[in-house]
Design goal:
This protein has 173 residues and is an alpha+beta fold. The chain is built from four helices and six strands; from the N terminus they run ααββββββαα. A hairpin with a 2-residue loop joins strand 5 and strand 6. The longest helix is centred in the N-terminal third of the chain and has 28 residues.
Length: 173
């Protein structure tokens, strides 16, 4: 026995274990930089632009060849619409080159336009070029006001509330 009551055999047995433990501590201290988190890096991000991304995606060519067709307005306009709520499909009155024609669903004009569907404010017409929605409101805004009618927006509320002037008596100029 050596001083302190620890035998030499026991020290000889523990010495390699203590040396291995010390080596592991030194190795862990030396390699700790591998386990440390990376330093914070600030990335500069641009603001998201979803509209630009959608525009870029929709502008891409996806199927077949791109065919650019110049849109020309049809040579006819809707003058009147009758679109009932019931089972009746209704009809439209179209003006084609100054000639007004009433059409029911499936009827064709002299210019080759076929009425496909009647809507509350217009009609869906088709030709060899494809289908077009012709609006009654667009046709009315494109035409001028009848002669003698006030321009839209020119009347004030006081003009509307005034009674009309009296009619002249018969036989007076």
């Amino acid at each position: 026995m050596v001083n302190g009551g620890v035998s030499a055999g026991r020290i000889a047995f523990m010495l390699p274990l203590l040396a291995g433990a010390a080596a592991l501590v030194c190795l862990g201290a030396a390699m700790s930089w591998l386990l440390a988190p990376a330093p914070f890096v600030r990335w500069s991000l641009t603001a998201p632009a979803p509209r630009a991304a959608v525009a870029r995606i929709t502008a891409q060519h996806w199927f077949g060849e791109v065919v650019r067709r110049q849109e020309t307005p049809p040579p006819l306009s809707v003058v009147g619409v009758y679109a009932p709520q019931g089972a009746s499909p209704g009809f439209v009155i179209v003006d084609e080159g100054g000639h007004e024609t009433s059409l029911v669903v499936g009827a064709t004009t002299a210019g080759g336009w076929t009425l496909k569907r009647v809507t509350a404010d217009g009609a869906v017409m088709s030709s060899a070029d494809g289908e077009r929605l012709l609006s009654l409101l667009a046709a009315r805004s494109a035409t001028a006001s009848p002669p003698g009618a006030p321009a839209p927006g020119s009347m004030s509320s006081s003009d509307i509330l005034q009674p009309p002037p009296p009619l002249p008596a018969p036989g007076t100029p």
